[in-house]
Structures
1.
Amino acid sequence: MKTNSIQKSRRRKEARPSELIAAALELFVERGFAATKLDDVAAKAGVSKGTLYLYFESKDALFKAVIEQGIFPILAEGATLLQQFEGNNAALLKEFMQRWWQLMGNTPVGGIPKIMISESGNFPEVANYYYDNVIVRGRDLLRQVLERGVTAGEFRDMDVETTIDVIMAPVLMLIVWRYSVAPCGTKDPEKYMKSYLDLILNGLMMKKETRL
Amino acid sequence: MKTNSIQKSRRRKEARPSELIAAALELFVERGFAATKLDDVAAKAGVSKGTLYLYFESKDALFKAVIEQGIFPILAEGATLLQQFEGNNAALLKEFMQRWWQLMGNTPVGGIPKIMISESGNFPEVANYYYDNVIVRGRDLLRQVLERGVTAGEFRDMDVETTIDVIMAPVLMLIVWRYSVAPCGTKDPEKYMKSYLDLILNGLMMKKETRL
Amino acid sequence: MKTNSIQKSRRRKEARPSELIAAALELFVERGFAATKLDDVAAKAGVSKGTLYLYFESKDALFKAVIEQGIFPILAEGATLLQQFEGNNAALLKEFMQRWWQLMGNTPVGGIPKIMISESGNFPEVANYYYDNVIVRGRDLLRQVLERGVTAGEFRDMDVETTIDVIMAPVLMLIVWRYSVAPCGTKDPEKYMKSYLDLILNGLMMKKETRL
Amino acid sequence: MKTNSIQKSRRRKEARPSELIAAALELFVERGFAATKLDDVAAKAGVSKGTLYLYFESKDALFKAVIEQGIFPILAEGATLLQQFEGNNAALLKEFMQRWWQLMGNTPVGGIPKIMISESGNFPEVANYYYDNVIVRGRDLLRQVLERGVTAGEFRDMDVETTIDVIMAPVLMLIVWRYSVAPCGTKDPEKYMKSYLDLILNGLMMKKETRL
DNA sequence: AATGAATGAGAATTCATTCAT
DNA sequence: CATGAATGAATTCTCATTCAT
């Protein structure tokens, strides 16, 4: 019984940081870092202001934690994707993007890119951390698909590095639109992803007829 | 001589609001609205903080002015583009995008989209204003090109509304990257635009051979 | 064995208040009352912050206890000194001061005067308590020595009440210096006490020649 | 007229720091640094809390300024004393101490030693600054008097360095008592100084008979 | 018009105190 | 008894806004 209650308490304590991070993520995304009050973060997490400081030593530290924690699922997903890297590269690209959307499109994690866009200027080290851990790795995955596609004659010749950016841009914007210019953002993500994939795959693919 | 200096002073006086807006734009882009101090805006514009209040009744009003002023060139450019709306639609689309980049890519105006992304949640009316005046109009132009291209058999069939968004996304991201996640932002815009246009035009175009 | 551990625990339990007081004394002396955190006091005493409140109902109460506890040895020493109050008064004065230094000079108790100097303004009742129990009694002892010395023709005539203060000042400062302006405090207490006793005894004593 | 009002304003602005420092000195002496609220300092200086930050960037900076400003009169007085350093050394010592009392005994500056005693542990750099600029210089002056007195055969032989401390202690304590253990502080400074000077001069002086 | 000193409401942070376990 | 997580009042510090000059 005592063990039980201790565990309960311990479980609660262990959950606190995550709860606070989740609350903070939501508010940072919605309002921006500077405009978010720690009072509100604490309230949203259902604790008092002081409790926040039991787990994070400053607002900046909380920000950092939000990003670091937010990155985990992305990295994990990336690792998973790596394993199936074989076969038809067009299909692979499609798979990659769809997974990306599943991960980011309907979960709180999706707010991370918006935060990084808005706040990277004020948090250079965090931006670097994000760049090294998320952007670089994501680009690595995409690079593989594109290069193999070109080599296999599936894709047209291209400037791979630049094309990576061009291809990522629409899915990033889709995410960003979720949280910005909200009224106009009433987009249908399914249709968007469909149009997007149709467009870029068509744009990348070697035209069969060309060979004729 | 006195006349001269008066004119100079008057000119300067009349320029004040613009100077302040320019300074504010730069800082809002760099740091975000909430993190920007009016002290710094005034200092950057070379006036005292009190002077700022002679021209803008609050920080919010300054924000609004920054957006409104920032929109003028965009609207003007849009009007110009409208006039040449005939001929080859692929070329027109290319022209449209290149003009867009010229307008946004190397001028302070380019910061506006980043600001709107970051702050629209905190300024719903401004966001609506921006939506009604910039986004809607921009989409109108693009819609015309795309629809005429489809009708003319130049472009493949498509969901036009969604495709507008997909097509705009990469150029928006290019702009946003200029001000965010700085390290990764070391992109070559020329190459980027080239790859981008190549990809989407190829993606949009009816395959000539298909007709065979 | 159980008995043993219970005794141990009991002994420890009974020692708790003293340990807490000792820890508090050290920190109050070092940092001052307001700047001392109860967290640190508890940590230094090896208990949790909550435990502190089992023994003291508030930070103020702890302060009071520190002073009261700190006064015991001083009072005890005073009582002892009273018993040998006879014989050569110069020697007695010397003895008095040397004992005082033994008591205060190398023990934690020595911090009490510094605390009283720093905090008496914020704790008037404690200051009164200290005054009534320590200062008044100490002065009583000194008064006896001085008055008897004057009566016996050993000491010159003097304003006894004032001289008490003048005589006490150097030993008090010696103690205070131990904890203040630390760098300059590299004084040799032995030499200091020697010079001090030499000076004041010489200053108090009737000049032999006067008799001539 | 404009010139006049500008000067008035300027004069006011220039006076602010001193007014704030004076208010802070008083409260720091009375309550200690940590227990003094900036609100109260500002109120006592007749300004708002925010104004304080126009002149001092933090509470610590204010503390430093209080000490630095408080030291000026002491240093100035020291410089003046240096000039009359000739003649009878006993008289010189008397003069030195009386001047010291005039300077510290009835002015706010007198609080400085108490502050240094209480807070030096928390402000090591300030303590060093104080040591280098006040204590060292004061000791230098006293050393001269004592050494010359010994050389001239006026004073008995002594350990000069230690005696400096012993001699300074009573006047320091007199000052400290002004602000501490208030009830016991009801001392008559005139009588105290008289007894003090009588005692130490008698204690220092060569006994006339010795010459016999 | 322009200035910049002054303000005070508001936000981050600290820490004595409480209380469920 | 003992713990340490949680609290929230109190304090430092910031900055948009005002206003006398």
2.
Amino acid sequence: MLTKRQESILKMIVNEYIKLAKPVGSKLICEKLNCSSATVRNEMMQLEELGLLEKTHTSSGRVPSEKGYRYYVDNLMELKELNGEEVYKLQTVFNNSQLELSDVLNKSLEIISDITSYTSVILDTKSHDNKLKEISVVPVDSEILVVIVVTDLGYVSHKNIELHGVSLEEVKKTVKLINDLIVGTPIDEISAKLEFEIKPVIAKYVKQHEILYNAFYDVFTDISSKSVNVVGKNNILKHQEFSNVDKIKDIFSKLDDRALIENISESNNDINIYIGHENKVDPDVTVIKTNYKTSKDEGTIAIIGPKRMDYDRVVNLLDYIKKQIEG
Amino acid sequence: MLTKRQESILKMIVNEYIKLAKPVGSKLICEKLNCSSATVRNEMMQLEELGLLEKTHTSSGRVPSEKGYRYYVDNLMELKELNGEEVYKLQTVFNNSQLELSDVLNKSLEIISDITSYTSVILDTKSHDNKLKEISVVPVDSEILVVIVVTDLGYVSHKNIELHGVSLEEVKKTVKLINDLIVGTPIDEISAKLEFEIKPVIAKYVKQHEILYNAFYDVFTDISSKSVNVVGKNNILKHQEFSNVDKIKDIFSKLDDRALIENISESNNDINIYIGHENKVDPDVTVIKTNYKTSKDEGTIAIIGPKRMDYDRVVNLLDYIKKQIEG
DNA sequence: ATTTAGCAATCGAGAAAATAGAGTGCTAGG
DNA sequence: CCTAGCACTCTATTTTCTCGATTGCTAAAT
């Protein structure tokens, strides 16, 4: 258990390090506290023994360890009010009634990435309630055809197919068959249904069914796939912990990797903080994220930055967005 | 006018520098040529006076200047055959008949970025022949509606709108009006037509027309806008000329900038090479690009890399792709 | 008229040494 | 329990030194 004084020393060190990114020495602390630097040093030593602080070398100031940050966010962090300008910028997005949810999320996280210099990720998991609403086809010319699929919740996906010897009649027949058989099916069950129920049927009624089957398979796969959007990736470059080209390469490739979906995805409804090794993205970053869920949509929004992150500010911003979109 | 020997020295220096990124000294050259290093040095001095070579400091080897690269690509470069593996990889894309043109372009430039370690840009300008084919709406629920627009050439765009007190009837009426009035209009004339011909009409027949008008305006804007796709951006990090964080920041922000569209766009049908200051993207890169045009689509494909670029290889690859997609 | 051998001069890159300064841990006294 | 004082440690920076690559020039050779 930490004493009151130890806590305030830890807090000061974390805050100072977040601000200046330089190891914090006893002198700086003792000026703010009413005691000598030797006293502070003794306390620091104890905090180090507890694993909350670290030194970069024998005679350097102290830097918070992951455990130190953890203690800070769990016990010490104070959530301040959002500043007026930030709220104002975000409100222009939330008040724009012409935007769809996905636009609102993208734009508001762009703003956040902008004002915080961190990177954001928006993960659209797509709700399980999402059902197939309608399939339609628009012939473009005698050879080409656009297949359009719309779901219950307003997701749209489309694909162009080239008909090699398939007549428009047959296409229409296929579309009708599929419409009759699977409208109303939840999107994540469509693949299976398409293969085991639809394929045999259209194989019977339609010549050249492979082309059509594949096209539909693609559109459905596309619409049921999760989407990832990484915003403000270049902000990575603004932080001195990522000033080494190899590290930059490393992080950029992780942000581009499809595995990011699994690594970011969050089902918990709180604002969750994963510091360093606690997250699956990269041991040198902190990920702050939360799940969002509206009647039409669900997913995860996340902010990624260095462990030396402005924790309270980011938590506040995420919380604000979450509340706004969940209404 | 350069002598035969000067040309082969310049050529060797460029090739060597492209390979090793280190200033090239006289010793290396004189081993390949049948003469002494002093002779080579004399020639080098002349090439430097002509502005074709540069030194990084008084006693360093030589590095090609922009003018030197220019002379190289104009007069010295030999176009070799593509190697079998590269052709094979690209063929798997071109032979996949299920892919649309845009997919083919993206995938083949992904392959090129991969094997060359350069960055590619695909610019889809959209053909002027692209005309509006059909507008349709799919009601998602009582409040929400998907507007889908398809063009002549198979481009699709869509947007969800929220109807605040607009009845489905009115929407259908609007859609019919628009369909009747502007189907067949080239997409780049749609905005104007929408504003000056359609707006007055729907304003007369439809209550709450603003919402609808704005939604349609958005979909049309979207479909007529040029698309940019930057592939292999992280490859920038692989070249030693971009090992400085500020330079990386600089280039990345230029690749993200919408101005890239204007800076890359190319109408000339050849494979064009813009070395350093010759291009509008960044003075430290070379851009090799060409226009492509098929019956359905047109735009620009470009490869961006350091000035010390593998010119012949990239020219060959671009040429190969251009020929493949133009059929 | 070229080409070449030889040589002093130049400069960068890297190692080694010197210096300054910030911060620590410990001890002894308040 | 706190603090003043001090020796010690380590980094970061600057300075100096050395090595080696490469050049330009000159004079002799072809």
3.
Amino acid sequence: MSNIENIEYDSLLIRFKDLLKHNNLKFTKQREVVLKTLYNNDEHFTPESLYLLIKETYPELNVGIATVYRTLNLLEESSIVTSISFGSAGKKYELANKPHHDHLICKCCGLIVEFENGDIETKQEEIASKNGFKLTSHLMQLYGICENCQKSRKNK
Amino acid sequence: MSNIENIEYDSLLIRFKDLLKHNNLKFTKQREVVLKTLYNNDEHFTPESLYLLIKETYPELNVGIATVYRTLNLLEESSIVTSISFGSAGKKYELANKPHHDHLICKCCGLIVEFENGDIETKQEEIASKNGFKLTSHLMQLYGICENCQKSRKNK
DNA sequence: TTACTTGCAAATGATTTGCACGTAT
DNA sequence: ATACGTGCAAATCATTTGCAAGTAA
């Protein structure tokens, strides 16, 4: 692990600890492990997939899925993680401090592809100011069928 | 109700009936009423809100919520309706053949302004196809502070 | 010590499913 | 007549919550 990554993780951890202290909450191994696992794995996790990975990685901690849910909610309220939801397949979480990007989501298998597009962001600013709004953030998710799912549909 | 609306509805209905026939499914009052209610009300429905409106509008049919779910799934698979996920507020359905609109949302007072922007939609198509996706829908919400709220903040 | 946190299991809420009866074709 | 569709209630799935025991501060 490089120094840069450690610095990033350390600052995340400090933010998390500060937040806990401010709210009279305690810093626990379980909470740390949730944050660390999100940080070490560049994926979009469902609560269950995160729970399974944590169980596998830290079997001695015997973390319960309820704690994963509780910690994800805490982290999301504090804007340390964000979630995206796609239909009935559920909700997925990722760290919020990644460089800004939007999501392309397969309605069929749940695959998520990240993208970034400056032209669209410029247009969004134009639309907002045309309507008298001062833009603070946005949510853009494109839903479709990915290459693989298009193929498997044809095979049926 | 104008002729134009009737023609639109009739063509929708024909599409639905064709689809049912094609799959050896039957055209029933309940299925018709789900489509008609979506058509007559320019809203985003949760399965439950749609169910409640149908019960209120056609009490004699005694439609069950399971049928609303079943019909929405059927209509969605057939691309007659699409669903959009509004964050934690759940999943909402609307007719797929309406012109797509997006939302500009004031974080301060909740004002919602609808807009439509062809340039962005074109870019979205480009992004999707560049990633091998066949685009079916999108969710774009711009969050900000509206004109009025900007003024009243200054007054404070 | 004393709150807060945990894992567990039970509870909840949304959606789906099995079944016997009803209905469109 | 024969599937298929329906409402109902029970089942399921993801998520939340109550509780007694454990742990950070």
4.
Amino acid sequence: MPATAVVQDTKLSLLDAAEALIAEHGLAGASMRAITSRAGTNLAAANYHFGTKEELARAVIARHFGPVNAERLRLLDEAEREAGVGAPRLESLVRAFVGPVVRFGQELPDRGRHFAQICGRAMTQPEPVLRESLLGELAEAIRRFRAAFTRALPDLPIEELLWRIHFMVGAMAHTIAGTQLIEEVHGDVLDTRDVDGIVERMVRFLSAALAAPISETPAPEKG
Amino acid sequence: MPATAVVQDTKLSLLDAAEALIAEHGLAGASMRAITSRAGTNLAAANYHFGTKEELARAVIARHFGPVNAERLRLLDEAEREAGVGAPRLESLVRAFVGPVVRFGQELPDRGRHFAQICGRAMTQPEPVLRESLLGELAEAIRRFRAAFTRALPDLPIEELLWRIHFMVGAMAHTIAGTQLIEEVHGDVLDTRDVDGIVERMVRFLSAALAAPISETPAPEKG
DNA sequence: GTCTATATGGGGATAGAC
DNA sequence: GTCTATCCCCATATAGAC
């Protein structure tokens, strides 16, 4: 057998298997034994290629997130270029922010869906491995988008903007992590495969939310 | 020692310890050994009171969620009563929906925060125990709020409404589960202890989002 | 009701042959 | 690069004394 080709096969099989099982059972619940078994190999091979379980988990995050994030930044560039000296349209920014993530998560049958589940959970995950790995990949995008939203919404105080971005991230994360949940609860009404529809619904929802007037609602008398 | 009093102490200590450790390390990462040790007792006692680890987890969810959910339904009743024959104000519905959850999560120093983290993660959690337990407690509230939002937003097609509720749940879940994340990323700017402020920010954000015009944004040329 | 001690199984990681 | 066999630790759950 050509060893140089088999290397990639084994490594990729391990990544695929880890992705699927971490999505299905969580990091702690995905044992190396189950992963290697699903990949058609054994414990020692995984250790040979990745060293530890943590390194394998990091590789699972890194594999697809780089490209997806690059696409987000490309759309952000495009929106800023089209806007010229003025601020880009809010809808374009939101679409650049959520579009590639949701799209990648829903439109590929297995890969994307498993990966999206993992990413959607990663930020609020108890195990630090996935969270830190994801935040590391996100650092530049956070900076870039935060600046772009600041210019698009110049009247918002910075705390208000950051909270709103936080809420937006929540809507996005829950959507990509909770595909299964939607199908369980609303499967008779909602179609989780209509990727473009979902993205445009999110764009409408989040654009209106981000642009909400600041102090329209007075504080209630009592909580 | 009065055995009848000690019973409650041991049981409560176990619930407190389980809550804290599940919040911190996830269900799979919180071992019964660690829980019983933190509670100042031992494995056999936990098994005596709860039978299995899963039962203990269910009890952790059930303990606070009943009251919090009752408060949400009480606020919903109040909003509907005040509105009389007409539909309640959207802001009141959103405040009833997210207020008690966020409030309970942030305003108690330990208990609430741990519990909120668990609930915020539970719906997209890989382990079915927590998800099913939470969804069980939620069944009536889902029905009631869905009907209320339908009346408050009569022009929205049902799919659009359900997706928007899904996005809203995401913003709420991410907020209560991600307190630690906010402090890590934006701790210099945002104050996670300003409970009333957070709730009112969410109410503004989500009310505008839920009421967004339906087809204002035409589909983009290319994704 | 609470404890110590233990049964039984699964976990990650590795040694060493091929 | 890949395998089998194994080390060692920790998990849940239980038995049985008090």
